[in-house]
Amino acid sequence: MADFTFFTNPMSRGQIARWALHEAGADYDQVLVDWTAKPAALLAANPMGKVPTILHHAAAGARTVSEAAAICAYLADVLPQAGLAPHDTERADYYRWMFFAAGPIEQAIVAKSMGWDVPEGREPMVGFGSVSRVLGTLEAHLQGREWVCGNRFTMADVYVGSQVDWGLTFGSIPPREAFVAYAERIQARPAYKAAKTIDNDLIEEMKR
Fold this sequence. Notes:
Elements: E1 4-8, H1 14-24, E2 28-32, H2 40-45, E3 53-58, E4 61-66, H3 68-78, H4 91-114, H5 131-142, H6 155-170, H7 177-187, H8 190-207
Parallel strand pairs: 1-2
Antiparallel strand pairs: 1-3, 3-4
């Protein structure tokens, strides 16, 4: 048995977790999830039936982690040899921007994609305020730096980078210079390429 069981569907946020698994050098077995017939093992681990979900077959017993940002952070912690967890001086940026992407950015992009408008005067009531404010904040942080925490790639870049990469691909994030340059650095990583190749091949198989 591999160290991790990975429940996923290639047309999902499972792409984020697969990239994280590859960056971390994790030994994993995948379980492909059919939306209409979710496996009992997934539902037992995560009653929400959501992907991605991972099972870590640790010596002390199996551990379940769901939610893509949590999976990223967990893998960085339990596989420290990969060097993806933050150093002390990087910790604030690491957690701030990973959860900024999981919260305000995710909310803002979903709201935009769904055509949901925040009623005038109610921006303080939502976690993202406005799409323009969220994107402007992220853009300002990425300008003049190579990675989320500065000059070193960390697991925060897997999650933030996935949001930027996905948004540029599907048009929910505008192709501003800072976003495009960041995405190009992300896409050049060997682990990104390896993970995307697997998921893209699986998507092509599903289309046949």
